[in-house]
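W.,

You were right to be curious about this one. When I first looked at the sequence I had no strong expectations either way, so I just let the prediction run and decided to look at it fresh. Below is the sequence, 74 residues in total, followed by the output.
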Amino acid sequence: MREFCFNLKISAHEYVKYYQGIARAVYVKDKNGKSIQFPADVLKPFITKDGIYGYFIIRIDDRNKLIDIKKVAE
């Protein structure tokens, strides 16, 4: 299992692209500068009227399958 920590700032206007299916993946750099990509739909539980903002931890298994994602701070 691997774990990645990152800040995320996606405005409500920007998230519309993901919602409409125009963009399907989110690309971020973790706290160590490593680039990671994951499906945008895993962020649905974190959407607010302002968008998605906060510090997140995502865990993946050895086959690069998502285990979970959680928001740990604003």
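Here's what jumped out at me. DSSP finds one helix and five strands in the chain. And, maybe more interesting for your project: The mean pLDDT is 92.

Coffee later to discuss?

I.
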